[in-house]
Specification:
By secondary structure, the chain is of the alpha/beta class. Helix content is 50%, strand content 12%. The protein has a nine-stranded mixed beta sheet with strand order 9-18-19-10-17-16-13-15-14, sandwiched between helices. A six-stranded antiparallel beta sheet has the order 1-8-2-3-4-7. Strands 24-23-25-26-22-27 form a six-stranded parallel beta sheet. Helix 21 (620-697) runs antiparallel to helix 23 (709-809). Residues 1125-1220 form the DNA2/NAM7 helicase-like C-terminal domain.
């Protein structure tokens, strides 16, 4: 738990660190006044644009004016920060000069110079600088807290200025309130006058006390504070409401608003006074002094940018997006939520520690093709597919990414992120289309499980409602979707406005699908066409984001005449819809049938996948069978050896037993002989004893003994002899008996040994029998395994034949040996990357039909409940436009957005607009966040979106343009040290893509830019289909370690320029980056291209005339020489990009071209940074730089990013203009120069060698 708390605090510190970087990094997009620019500098003695003669803004348009008051150099911010956080560092330690301008505040004025109160924005950067150099200072806990409150207090006074309630002292006497001598602002010395009689500055009670008292005394201060309540309340009410009531259809309200109402609301939103320069100067000086930055930032200029707006949106304004951080408030909010345990998984993954990231096992897709193929198995391919050409499915790396995204994140309870690394031209948009399709189909699967269309919504009793605070009689309500239908919302976000618009403006159009294969594809196409302004097939995506886009969406998609969703639903409510109400049951069945067909085809391909698995390498079954047979054979050998041993043992036991039997017989015979002798001896003893007894009885009587002694003596002698004989006989008997006992013992011993040997014989015989039985079993197993192996071999042979037939039937869609080749086999790699395993046209078409059926089911749901949906969408439009009350509960807002996403599955926004658009939504309220061009996004830009999302798919390329951070790296380091954050988290160190890459366990390693360590990138897209060979090879080498595969095939010859060319123009020894000689060569190239375009137009015209003699068939440009010339110039501009690493070169190039009668639109001529996400047939790169400007060239070549962007904008031809000697040896540029052996020509226009001096005509044949 302690570790978890420490990790949470670490992540919160990162967010607070990023917030501080945001405060000190004002956006650098304010346009500087200058030649050809709309922005003008306000100066004393010159009329303000709204006070003078202004050219007409156009039909049904009016002028609006953005005022940037208190312009300051962003460089001063870095200096101020360094002076406080690192006072001992020298200027050169703080990094190079920072370009760009900030402003103390911005405000928008109407055509009469009146203030739109909702438009005023105070600079958070200037506020942060004041908090740093003054009170409370960076050591205070509340150092960067409280901006919103300070802004409200200051804006109150500005509203009073707009209403004319503040007296402006323009006497010219300007008192300095600091050590800096009072300077003029826009040539004037006006300031806000502290005058209790006007009630002006008294709108800020907390700030005015000392100021008023110092000027007018305590009584005036008391009077001023007493007046503050009503004035401040009125102003704060306007500020907090931020409501827009423009463009509402009368049907949108239960009670129609009157013109008086509209006028009143407009008057409340507008200031009452046409502002003069003196007013702007006074408020600028006053704000500067209030923030305490007058001396530090020297904000002395006022710039004004006029722009026309349509009358429909004339009163639609918001805070300007060019002076403040878009993310600081979100970062602070998410940091607090994180500390409260309310962060969400995506944010936690994004901010994960190194230890957490490194503990997850990674899959390197370049090193393990077999695993990649496993993740391409038909079983894991989503049901839905974009309705593109069935014969052009996603290639393996794209489908691999989609499969893994859906497998990891599609479960309703799934949370987290997945990064896709998309080098240029590798099909990021194509991939995102299929992701949209997969998600929409998932929601349709839920719909198809419902009993009826009304079941898609909660009971009416659970409807959420609200009233307009100013029109209590007017009520809006939303019946929310059931929970099971939520979590599918798709938000596409990016720092690059063009990137997200490219997706959401493109995918609804007819050109984004294969209308030939899917001629009936249609999902609210009428409303989508109204919105896009071109033929569309389906309302699957919409561009939202900034308020103007959201209002435009509501006006066209909802209120659009005839085909807008509002009139369409009305027709279904009234029963007047053509064809009647579509059958929800039929749509449901069609969807189910489409899914069933996909499952049928999936099953077929799973069977083929099984065949491939059998044939793709060593067959596991056959290997097991053969291994089993080998094991049985080994056991058989062991058993035979054992059997032989057992037989030998049995024979030995038999011999021993026989010997024992012989011994028993011998001993039994010996015992019998002894027994015979014993019996004989016993009988002899008995006879002797009998004789002895009888002899004893024959002893003479005693009286005879007395008289006949001789007889007695004779008897004695005879008896003694008998006794001796008996004794001897007895001894003989005893000896015989002893021998008999011995013989009996010996016999018994022999019998026992015989019994034992008999048992041993039996045991040995049983062992032999057991061994032979086991041997027989083994032999049977061997035969069985051999039979099964042979059967398996036949199965494999048959499978191989069948698999080859499948390959012939579905060429390119059944994997081959390329998937089992070693990773270093490039030929095999290129083959497998350009294939689409299992996704043959039949399967692809069926999956696309599932998407179309899914959209039909969505549409049927809408039109089956037209009244409910109409009422829901009426309320939703208020939420989308930002017209709903600020205090709506999160659940109500969420219900509205979820309803919108049910109708339009995906919407786009910039990161800058996301916090405003989704204000009020909390953690994981959005189903899916898709971040495009994430390599350009600073890491902090994505935090608010990630926190609001359950799932995030981050797509981008860190090897393209890097994030732009106004605060230089040394300043970022100072702040990192202050917040105890590792410098790894500095915005300039890593992009949003880099952080997402490290958290994605599926990807590959690329060499690091410092070549010291490798860098992990998320799931890579690898087939490049934009550039011709030179550009592809250079990009692949300098940025991608050869990871990409060239998918450009079958292109026709490019007639405008067949050769890539390096025009070697010698740079001056010193001076500026701009070299006029390079401009001269550029003009020569453009003239040649223009001539060729003109020739092609003549050929085109001839072809038209051959086909038709009707003059009306000719294009308009063919009928007027001036139109023809304009058309040629337009085609030229559409064919090229002119780029340079340096802004100075572009500025001078534009001027030089104008002087030479070439007007190239700014969108086709800019620094390399301006071309990200775009492409052209020809890119002309003007390098520039004098010979002594080595540091400038080192900057341009330090990483592959800049050159990589430039060359990957080029579809067909790259033309480089610059000093070959200066540039060709530089890092990354050396790779380009090294291709001068055929793919790139080097030409020196001043060379004396004839073949080299043949002119641009010969170099671009």
């Amino acid at each position: 738990m302690v570790r978890s708390n420490e990790e949470t605090r670490r992540q919160a510190r990162i967010l607070q660190y990023w917030r501080s970087v945001e405060y000190f990094s004002p956006p650098s997009g304010i346009e500087r006044p200058g030649y050809g620019k709309d922005t003008v500098k306000a100066l004393r003695g010159q009329q303000l644009p709204w006070a003078g003669q202004q050219r007409p803004p156009g039909t049904n348009k009016v002028w609006r004016y953005t005022v940037y008051a208190g312009i300051f150099e962003v460089e001063r911010v870095r200096t101020a920060l360094g002076s406080i956080l690192a006072p001992d560092q020298q200027e050169h330690d703080l990094g190079g000069r920072v370009r760009g301008d900030g402003a103390l505040l911005s405000l928008t004025l109407d055509e009469n110079g009146k203030l739109f109160k909702d438009s005023v924005t105070l600079s958070s950067c200037a506020w942060a600088v004041g908090r740093t150099i003054g009170t409370p200072g960076p050591d205070a806990d509340n150092w960067l807290d409280g901006f919103e409150e300070e802004e409200k207090r200051i804006l109150n006074v500005l509203f009073d200025i707009g209403d004319g309630r503040v007296r402006i002292d323009s006497s010219g006497s300007v008192e300095s309130r600091g050590s800096r001598a009072a300077r003029l602002i826009a040539g004037l010395g006006a300031r806000v006058a502290i005058d209790a009689a006007t009630g002006g500055i008294t709108a800020i009670p907390g700030l005015i006390g000392s100021a008023v008292e110092s000027h007018l005394g305590k009584n005036a201060a008391t009077i001023a504070e007493s007046m503050a309540g009503s004035v401040a309340g009125d102003a704060v009410g306007s500020l907090e409401a931020r409501r827009d009531r423009i463009g509402q259809n009368p049907e949108e309200r239960d009670g129609s608003s009157t013109s008086e109402d509209t006028g009143a609301s407009t008057q409340e939103a507008l200031g009452r006074k046409s502002l003069e320069l003196v007013d702007l100067v006074a408020l600028t000086r006053w704000v500067s002094e209030q923030l305490g930055v007058d001396e530090t930032l020297e904000p002395d200029d006022i710039w004004i940018k006029p722009y026309p707006v349509s009358l429909r949106h004339a009163d639609e304004v918001s805070g300007d997006e060019l002076i403040n951080s878009f993310y600081a408030e979100d970062l602070n909010r998410v940091a607090g939520e994180l500390l409260s345990g309310n962060a969400g998984q995506a944010v936690q993954d994004y901010l994960a520690s190194d230890g957490t990231v490194e503990s997850v096992r990674r899959l390197d897709v370049r090193m393990d093709p077999a695993r990649v193929l496993k993740d391409l198995h038909p079983a894991v391919i989503p049901n839905g597919r974009w309705p593109g050409r069935p014969d052009q499915p996603l290639v393996s790396s794209q489908q691999f990414a989609i499969n893994n995204i859906m497998r990891k994140l599609s479960d309703p309870d799934a949370r987290g992120l997945y990064a896709v690394n998309g080098p240029p031209g590798t099909g990021k948009t194509t991939l995102l289309r299929d992701l949209i399709a997969a998600i929409v189909v998932q929601r349709a699967e839920v719909l198809a499980g419902l009993p009826g269309p009304r079941s898609a919504f909660r009971p009416s009793s659970e409807a959420v409602k609200w009233q307009d605070p100013e029109k209590p009689q007017y009520s809006l309500r939303i019946v929310p979707l059931i929970e099971e239908l939520t979590g599918f919302e798709i938000v596409i976000a990016s720092s690059n406005n063009g990137a997200v618009e490219n997706i959401t403006l493109e995918v609804p159009t007819e050109t984004s699908i294969d209308t030939e294969s899917f001629p009936d594809a249609d999902y609210l196409s009428g409303a989508a066409t109204l919105l896009a302004g071109e033929p569309c097939w389906g309302a699957v995506a919409a561009r939202l984001g900034k308020r103007a886009n959201r209002s435009g969406f509501v006006d066209l998609f909802w209120w659009g005449k005839e085909q807008g969703l509002h009139p369409t639903l009305r027709e279904y409510i009234d029963g007047s819809a053509a064809g009647g109400t579509p059958s929800w049951g039929d749509a449901k069945q069609r969807f189910r049938d489409a899914v069933a067909e996909v499952e049928r085809l999936r099953t077929e391909r799973e069977a083929v996948a099984g065949l491939y698995q059998m044939c793709s390498g060593p067959d596991a079954t056959l290997t097991d069978l053969r291994a089993g047979a080998a094991a049985w054979r080994r056991e058989c050998g062991q058993l035979e050896t054992r059997r032989d041993g057992l037989l030998g043992s049995l024979a030995a036991h038999n011999d021993a037993h026989s010997q024992n039997l012989a011994v028993v017989a011998d001993r039994r015979g010996a015992l019998s002989a002894v027994e015979v002798r014993a019996r004989r001896a016993g009988r002899q003893l008995a006879q002797l004893e009998e004789h002895c007894h009888q002899h004893a009885e024959e002893r003479p009587a005693w009286w005879k003994r007395l008289f006949v002694r001789a007889a007695d003596q004779r008897w004695q002698r005879e008896h003694t002899a008998y006794q001796q004989a008996v004794t001897q006989s007895r001894e003989s008997v005893q000896a015989t008996r002893s021998e008999q006992q011995e013989r009996e013992i010996a016999l018994n011993t022999a019998v026992e040994q015989t019994t034992l040997s008999e048992e041993q014989v039996a045991i040995a015989r049983q062992q032999v029998q057991d061994c032979e039985r086991r041997l027989q079993q083994c032999q049977a197993k061997i035969a069985e395994a051999d039979d099964m192996a042979q059967t398996r071999v036949m199965e494999l042979q048959n499978a191989a034949v069948e698999l080859e037939q499948e390959r012939l039937r579905r060429p390119g869609h059944v994997p081959g040996p390329e998937w089992t080749a070693p990773p270093e086999d490039r030929s095999a790699m290129e083959t497998r990357e350009q294939t689409a395993p299992w996704m043959d046209p039949e399967f692809a078409r069926a999956r696309s039909e599932v998407l179309l059926a899914a959209l039909d089911l969505h549409r049927a749901t809408l039109f089956a409940e037209p009244d409910l949906v109409w009422r829901n969408m009426r309320a939703v439009t208020d939420i989308v436009r930002g017209d709903s009350p600020d205090n709506l509960p999160e659940g109500t807002l969420l219900a509205g957005w979820q309803m919108l996403f049910f109708v339009v599955p995906a919407v786009s926004t910039t990161f800058a607009s996301l916090p405003t658009m989704f204000a009020g939504l909390g953690r994981e309220s959005i189903g899916w966040l898709v971040i495009d061009e994430a390599g350009q996004a600073t890491p902090q830009a994505a935090v608010g979106g990630l926190w609001r999302s359950r799932r995030a798919v981050i797509v981008g390329d860190p090897r393209q343009l890097e994030p732009v951070v106004t605060l230089p790296m040394p300043g970022q380091k100072l702040l990192a040290n202050h917040f105890d954050v590792d410098i790894y988290w500095a915005p300039q160190s890593n992009s949003a893509q880099s952080l997402a890459d490290r958290a994605t366990p599926v990807g590959t390693w690329l060499p690091g830019l410092d070549e010291l360590e490798n860098v992990w990138i998320g799931s890579p897209l690898r087939v490049h289909r934009r550039c011709d060979q030179l550009m592809f090879e250079v990009s692949n080498a300098i940025a991608y370690d050869g990871m990409m595969v060239n998918g450009v095939n079958g292109r026709t010859e490019f007639p405008l320029a067949r050769n890539n060319l390096w025009i070697d123009v010698q740079a001056p020894a010193d001076g500026r980056k701009w070299n006029p000689e390079e401009g001269k060569q550029l003009v020569s190239v453009l003239e040649k291209l223009h001539a060729r375009i003109s020739e092609s137009m003549i050929d085109e015209l001839a072809g038209i005339r051959e086909e038709s003699t009707d003059r009306d068939a000719l294009p308009a440009w063919a009928q007027d020489p001036h139109e023809k010339q304009a058309e040629a110039r337009r085609r030229l501009a559409d064919s090229i990009f002119i780029v340079s690493p340096f802004r100075e070169v572009i500025t001078e190039t534009s001027r030089y071209l104008r002087r030479n009668n070439f007007t190239i639109p700014p969108s086709r001529c800019g620094t390399i940074h301006t071309t990200q996400g775009k492409e052209a047939d020809i890119v002309i790169m003007v390098l520039g730089s004098a010979t002594d400007q080595r540091r400038a060239r080192a900057w341009a070549s330090a990483t592959p990013n800049l050159l990589n962007v430039a060359i990957t904008r080029t579809r067909r031809c790259l033309i480089v203009i610059g000093d070959y000697e200066n540039w060709s040896k530089l890092r990354n540029f050396a790779e380009l120069a090294g291709h001068n052996d055929g793919l790139l020509r080097r030409w020196n226009p001043t060379a004396t060698v004839e073949v080299e001096a043949t002119g641009i005509d010969q170099q671009l044949p």
